[in-house]
User: Fold this.
Amino acid sequence: MSVDSRPVALVTGASRGIGAEIARQLAARGVRIAVHCNSNQSAAEATLSQLAGSGHATFAADLADVAATTRLWEEVVGTFGAVDILVNNAGIYLNHPPLACTAHDWLQAWRLTLDTNLHGPAHLSLLAAQAMALRAERHGSGFGRGRIVNISSRGAFRGEPDAPAYAASKAGLNALSQSLARALAPVGVYVYCLAPGWVETDMATATLAGPDGDGIRAQHPLGRLSRPDELAHAAVYCALDAPAAMTGGIIDVNGASYLRS
Ligand code: NAD
Assistant:
């Protein structure tokens, strides 16, 4: 029996948007993909049907649910044997403007956003890190024992006046990435973080169509928003090509719409 030596990536939220594009580009590089979705299996199957190569599979789990997230990890490992790359991409953006929100809605938005955008990735990262740390070096020199790529946001740095929980969740994801990078580097597990600005996906559609749309477009000196394929290109670089020395880095992918130094 031949053992399949191709790397395996679990990409969360791969049923659409940036996650689907990351799955497509990783598959084009010869990676087997665990295509994760929340509950929209048919959308996940649609992504799966667009992947180059063979040996991919779909999985559904609500990442705001700890038990479901544990089950997801076990199912993915059960199917593929191991995971080499975890891409924490799934996320939500809920509007809850502080001056136009009840205390109940405010707390609901905070709980759901932190559970989905921070606690879910933290839980999956723990499961991945502990499994990866026990493995031998993989896929040639420089790859290490495993890689985690977190999709954060520009909002972590500049604030989100109408979605403070989103900004806080992504600031938490940045700090999680940095902490894990330091904790895991000694065992050869590398952690990278991307901070996109506005990207043309379903998540952004309603806001861009609303009264703030023109102002948002005007923030971009490229004259356009970022595209999902550009985010995916950066994510694939981190997942497969980035040097170990870049572990812990938070990389802006925002078309110079917000620069920090
Ligand atoms: P999207 O809304 O198109 O896709 C998000 C994905 O996450 C979907 O597949 C959805 O099913 C999944 N998801 C949401 N809640 C989930 C849950 N509880 N359990 C499991 N899966 C869940 O969004 P996108 O624009 O592709 O965003 C992808 C990532 O990029 C997100 O983390 C987002 O915060 C980040 N981001 C996006 C933008 C943007 O402008 N689109 C900007 C900065 C950062």
Remarks:
- The radius of gyration is 18 Å.
- The pocket of nicotinamide-adenine-dinucleotide is lined by residues 13, 15-19, 37-38, 62-64, 89-93, 116, 151, 153, 196, 198-199, 201-204 (CB under 6 Å).
- The longest strand covers residues 189-196.
